[in-house]
Specification:
The chain is an alpha/beta fold. 47% of the residues lie in helices and 16% in strands. A five-stranded parallel β-sheet has the order 2-5-1-6-7, sandwiched between helices. It has a two-stranded antiparallel ribbon with strand order 3-4. Residues 10, 32-33, 36-37, 97-98, 101, 127-130, 167, 171 line the site of 2'-deoxycytidine-5'-monophosphate.
């Protein structure tokens, strides 16, 4: 089993790169941001006080949270049998997700699910703390970055209302498993690279480490 960890700030290109990389390698693709977004959606749906870690933890206590890998070899999350995918990029979720994902009970829950999901599979897993906290022992760690201007433009081009710098600030300053570059991660600046360019740069490094496309 191999875990390829792809971490980095918002709009650094993680999702497109990770999905494509997983396809090239024949690995499963796990998007951990989706899990934090789904939890945020559920907390907002219940209308609990998002500034109270205890209320957030209590809201999740009774929820039936099911994470799995679909026929498309990508991760999914269902909460109380609902698949909230269509709502995960809503501005309300964008606005609250950093606050909710800073709650230690939420991080413990999702990190445990991510480890279970990986199990003995080969996975490409993207997030903020995959290489630094969820799978610190994996030798395959990448940190994608891009200039703030380019990241802002990417989100605007997607038509999304997303205060990415505010999220990055909260994500990197929280106490529990903050966004940071793991000491042994390879940093890839995606600012001036195409999607394929980033994927090829990562594949080049992986080949040197003994992982080859199928
Ligand atoms: O990757 P994304 O933008 O969809 O992630 C949404 C939020 O989820 C991000 O702002 C912080 C949180 N997150 C996290 O705390 N840890 C992860 N491994 C992945 C996401």
């Amino acid at each position: 089993m191999s875990v390829i960890a792809i971490d980095g700030p918002a709009a650094s290109g993680k999702s497109s790169v990770s999905r494509r990389l997983a396809k090239r390698l024949g690995f499963v693709y796990v998007n951990s941001g989706t899990m934090y977004r789904a939890i945020t959606w559920e907390v907002l749906r219940q209308g609990v006080d998002t500034t109270s870690p205890a209320a957030v933890a209590a809201a999740l206590d009774g929820a039936d949270i099911h994470c799995g890998i679909g026929d498309n070899s990508e991760s999914f999350i269902h909460i109380n049998s609902a698949a909230p995918d269509a709502a995960l990029r809503d501005s309300r979720v964008n606005l609250h997700v950093s606050l909710i994902s800073a709650v230690p009970a939420v991080r413990e829950l999702i990190s445990a699910r991510l480890r279970l999901l990986a199990g003995d599979r080969n996975v490409v897993m993207e997030g903020r703390d995959i290489g630094s906290a969820v799978f610190p022992e994996t030798p395959f760690k990448f940190y994608l970055d891009a200039s703030p201007e380019i990241r802002r433009k990417r989100r605007a081009d997607e038509g999304q209302s997303d205060a990415i710098e505010a999220r990055d600030k909260m994500d990197s300053s929280r106490k529990a498993a903050p966004l940071k570059i793991a000491g042994d991660a390879r940093v890839v600046d995606t600012s001036h690279l195409t999607l394929e360019g980033v994927v090829e740069a990562i594949l080049d490094i992986l080949r040197q480490l003994g992982i080859t496309p199928r």
